[in-house]
Design a protein that fits this description.
Length: 131
């Protein structure tokens, strides 16, 4: 005599077994998604680090060489101070543009694991609805 059938627990156990199998497959998919997002985050982080180093080196070299060249060109003229300020302003504007680009990379990295978070939240809602 099958007591589980008589008590109506066989359907309940079948649903639980199915849910556990689906949960295992879903967990595996979520881990794979998290791994892919981790790889993307590392790639963006490396790019950001490389951009920062390049930006620093280029800023120093550019400020020194071009500023010196322009100032030397106008050294004996009455516009020497004006040219010095214009050179400084031009390099400041270029630096702000590069910094804005770097900030946009940082903003993209701040959304790390967004897909995984969304999938896990949806899985949690579905699990609560089933129970």
């Amino acid at each position: 005599m099958n007591w589980l059938s008589l008590l109506g627990l066989d359907e309940w156990l079948a649903r639980w077994h199915t849910s556990l199998r689906e949960g295992a497959v879903a967990a595996e998919d979520r881990f794979e998604l998290a791994h892919l997002e981790w790889q993307q985050l590392k790639r963006h982080g490396f790019t950001l680090l490389l951009l920062g180093a390049v930006l620093l080196v280029l800023t120093v070299v550019a400020f020194l060489s071009l500023s010196a060249a322009v100032l030397l060109q106008f050294w004996d003229s009455p516009q020497r101070a004006l040219v010095a300020w214009l050179v400084a302003l031009a390099w400041l504007l270029l630096w702000v543009g590069a910094a804005a680009w770097g900030w946009s990379l940082v903003q993209r990295c701040s959304n790390a694991f967004a897909l995984t978070q969304r999938e896990l939240a949806q899985d949690w809602r579905e699990l609560k609805e089933r129970l």
